[in-house]
Amino acid sequence: MTTRLLEDRYGRVASDLRVSLTDRCNLRCSYCMPPEGLDWLPDDSVLTDDEVVRLIGIGVRQLGIREVRFTGGEPLVRRGLVDIVRRTREVGPEVEISLTTNALGLTRTARGLAEAGLDRVNVSLDTVRAETFAAITRRDRLGDVVDGLAAAHEAGLGPVKVNAVLLRGLNHDQGPELLRWCLARGYQLRFIEQMPLDAQHGWSRETMITADEILAGLEREFDLAPATEPRGSAPAELFLVDGGPATVGVIGSVTRPFCGDCDRVRLTADGQVRNCLFAREESDLRGALRAGASDDEIAERWVVAMRGKAAGHGIDDPTFLQPDRPMSAIGG
Known about the structure:
Radius of gyration: 19 Å
Low-confidence stretches: none
Largest sheet: 12 strands, mixed
Structural class: alpha/beta
Shape: globular
CATH topology: TIM Barrel
CATH architecture: Alpha-Beta Barrel
């Protein structure tokens, strides 16, 4: 078995694998999908549990993958999730395994996921006001998310991170409130600029709340100072809150891109490699896998797919086109 690296033409090496387990979700967040939902992937196109674990194994054993994060859609709706996590842990005892989730269902699964080998969770939560939550997600489920976060914390799936998107006219003024709420519970909050990945293609640079605006809103109530530890390939810029040790992060994906340090690669629920979140081309591993390709042959396809990665996402380029797939079908 030959060990290779997922290196692109610019010298970046991907060691962080994001694995989408489903494009389905039990929320309908306005910045992600329409109220009626989307046409889900046909069941026979979605990778089986065995196929998911095999591809992760190839990434870990042959291609230098050191972090695996399961995403969706909403990964908790995948019936085999706990077993996939357990088998991933067996494949890579030293690999960091995490989960990006809306936390619906974590009260039932957090303990089992921890026992299976999950290290931590990132939970999407944009507000702690029930009426605002219902307006953004089109579901009255804030209490379930809050309980899910608590269950994750109690199960030792930490540090528990909260990802929030501020939306003009909905929760744009709630950043300080959300930060106070997270600080009181020991959760690490990260604000993320809204990205052009909605199914409706309604994203607008003019209406997006920028990293500068997010920080300005927080600084009206908190003293923020840049954290001293190196950022490395992490997407969030960290700031000490009122002198620390607590921090808040801002991920300026659009206005403060970090493409030059990107170490991520994505595998969609239907077995396509995406070398960038905003890529408009994919490389098919599912077809090769189901046609009987060996692990070495699949690894080579993966290596080739990474060589085509662009220097940056190009959102500021006048020729930028939003990916055909929305975030729910790509995985975060």
